[in-house]
Amino acid sequence: MSGHVVCGDSREVLRELAADSLDGCACDPPYALVSIGKRFGANDAAPAKVGASGAYARASAGFMGQQWDTGETAFDPGFWAEVLRVLKPGAHIVAFGGTRTYHRLVCAIEDAGFEIRDQLAWIYGSGFPKSHNQRGPWEGWGSALKPAFEPIVLARKPLDGTLAQNLRRWGVGALHIDACRVGIGDGGGRDGEASASRRYGQRGSTDFAATSGPRGGDARGRWPANVLHDGSDEVVVAFPHSAGQLAGLSGDEPSDMTDQIYGKFAGRRASIPRGDAGSAARFFYCAKASKAERMGSGHPTVKPIAVMRWLLRLIARPGALILDPFAGSGTTGVAALAEGQRTFLIEREARFCADIDRRMRAAA
Description:
By secondary structure, the chain is of the alpha/beta class. Helices cover 22% and strands 17% of the residues. The protein is globular and about 60 Å long.
């Protein structure tokens, strides 16, 4: 297997790793979703630990009664500082968060020294509303919305010089755009970007040179966005209908985008209609999960392999060594294996370590 699994506390395991040795980090930390009052307000609740960890260090059960669903690690800048140490300069982190506690995760990562690059949204249709519905005069009122997305923080260890210099020295630092483009097979639409009437240069400038593909779009696929979805009916119908280009271009239509500023363009390149129509969900990467993906795992938060593969492909090359300090069900390891990457997986809960090992062997 191209994955190393350590059953232990990631705070302790990371101290044994060499600095600047890993190419990236992808993980799904505990969300600590149960409220502080409910978790720690009982008379027999464990006392709060002092220091940076704060109230989230109390040893009460969290999500679905799980003892591991606490924030003493995921919300601790000291922990992420150790992750920062072992990653190469320019290496990226992608970490899932809960909608109610995502801010604590991001602040901890940023306070540790990482640069926050973006927030991605993983949209799905399988969420179930955990609401306390009311009766009597308050019939129709409840306590929660239906969960339909999870935020993902994209962060990067500061570069060693310029981006180009960092790539030469360390082999990390940039996002693999072309490997993550959205084409017919992914988003359900045409090859080519959603809008390509102008191009951005390397220095942030724009040019209007015609390029290959429909309406000047890129034949390799649409530029990847910070939104992903599962392709479920609930998600697809939630996006507006987009008919796309309805008529062809002859090539002599004028363009007035810069009229009275730079002068008019002579015209646009001739093209044929895109021919696609339907939900605008086709503009975003669609990662459908297989029903067999759990492979018997007892972990309650198994992430779709397709989502993890796309994220790993975005931040690192084949052969890269990826860290997951919250290995859980081992999805990061399985996804990395499919992408030709290596993994260093750490899982504290012994009952999940056997699941990880089994999934990794089956995937190999």
